[in-house]
Each structure stands twice: as structure tokens, then as C-alpha cells.
Amino acid sequence: MSNTPFTTVPSCLPRHVAIIMDGNGRWAERRGKIRVEGHRAGAKSVRAVVEAAAELKLDRLTLFAFSDENWQRPKMEVEAIMLLLTEYIAKEKKELKKNNIKLTVIGDLSRLAANRHKAIQETIEFLSGGTGLNLTLAISYSGRAELQRAMTRFAKACEDGRMTSKELSADTVHEFLDDPTMNDPDLLIRTSGELRLSNFMLWQMAYTELYFTDVLWPDFRSQDFLKALSQFAERDRRYGKLREMPVLEIGRLASPIGTIDA
Ligand code: FPP
User: Fold this and answer.
1) pTM recorded for the entire structure
2) Rounded to the nearest whole angstrom, what is the distance from the C-alpha of residue 235 to the centroid of ligand 1?
3) Ligand 1: residues whose CB is within 6 Å?
4) Where are the alpha helices (DSSP H) in the chain?
5) What is the pLDDT of residue 76?
């Protein structure tokens, strides 16, 4: 990994950034190329952003690499994305290890070809000692299917006597998700100008800050990433509560219209 020349780094960085990498097809079409070329170029952006996230010491970077819905694309495109994914993992694993990066996958890997599933599991194992960036790939993933899996796991735990229905809370739902160790994303980036979540981490995104850019994923590089992080640093996250108001004196609170008696 080369050193990314960040001139200014925002003071307040998100711990977990999630990305919907969109616009590969349009990037290719605009250049008169086939869609697969867009995905290939997109893999280069993956390398650049993983490198930047590791250098900025983010805790986690989650990339939406292949959705449940993407299985409905032409077979050739599905194959090409799967190949790029497994190639990326195979080619980068030594570099990822050198940089102390851990790999996690969320999604239904049972739908992948057995050899690909195995290669991914082996790389997860190979990188399991990483204590730096947690690179999470969402593969064969959709938010609703993940919630369905969580409910099935919870129902099974109840049948086995490990849980009771009374124990169901937001925390227990979290425990039964694909990766219970995952903290919610602080920032979601979606490229290519589309303004939707597309079934991505629906449970985890309840209070995630959203950032949309017109840049197509294959053109997205570390400076675009930094721009998103800088905008995040300016957001005022209140989680439905009120901004902290300074207490002026005992019994009197600051308010936008002067002071009020408490
Ligand atoms: C969305 O663009 C992108 C995908 C469905 C695939 C993303 C895959 C990669 C970037 C390749 C490798 C991934 C890794 C992690 C190495 P789109 O095809 O929907 O674009 P469009 O909306 O312009 O058609």
C-alpha cells in the first residue's frame, strides 16, 4: 500500500463507513465498453478506498459488492462480478494482511459456487488476526433477507431453549444479524447520483448519515472519499434528541429565544 497524500484530514472521522458502489455500468456505456469493463474499473476504486480507509485508521469499511437482486442480471455479468470479487480477494490477501486488515463477509454465501465460497472462507481465516481496518464485503446480500435470517436464528434459539420470546429487544435483534460484532455505519456513501438505500443494511442504518455523489464508482478515488468524510465532520448528529444546551446558571437554560426558567 502506498501512502495516500492526504493534505487535510477532518477532525471528526466516522468509525464505520458503508458504500453502495454504483455506476459501473453507466461508466462503461459512456466509454462504449461492455458493462463488465465498468466492474473491472470499479475494482480499482475498491483498492484505492480500502487503502485510504486503512491509512485513516477507520474501524470498518463495508462495501455492497453484490446484492440478492443482482443474481437476476445476465449470467455473464454475474460470473464476471464473482470472478472480480474472488480475484480481488486472492490477489490482495497478502497486502491486506501486511496492513493488518481483517475481512468479514455478510450475506448468503451458500448461493455462491462451492469453490468461491471456500476461497472466501479461507481468506477470512487467513486475515482473522487483523486488528486494524475491518473490511466487510456484502455479497449475495440484502437488508430484508438479513433480517429474515436473524428472525430464523432467533426462532431456532427459542426452539432450542437458548432464548425466550420475552428476551426479544433491539439488542437481541443485533445479536442475530449476520455479523453481531458490527457497529452501525456512521456514514453511507452512494455513488452515481441515485438517491436510495436499495435494501442495504436496513436495520443498521437507522441513524446513519447519508452522502450522495454524482461521481460514478469507477471514478471514485481517495480525494472523493475524503470529501465525503469532510462533509460528515460537519453533520450535527442528534439521534432524535436535542442539541446539548449550555447551562447559564442554576435553574436557567440557554434557548434560541434567550433564556428560559427551568
Ligand atoms: C453497481 O453498479 C455495482 C455492482 C453491482 C457490482 C460492484 C462490483 C465491483 C465494484 C467489482 C468488484 C468488487 C470488489 C469488492 C473487489 P451497476 O452495475 O448497477 O451500475 P449502473 O447502475 O450504472 O448500471
Assistant:
1) 0.91
2) 28
3) 21-26, 39, 42-43, 46, 63, 65, 70, 81, 84-85, 88, 137, 192
4) 24-30, 35-55, 75-98, 114-126, 143-159, 170-175, 222-233
5) 97
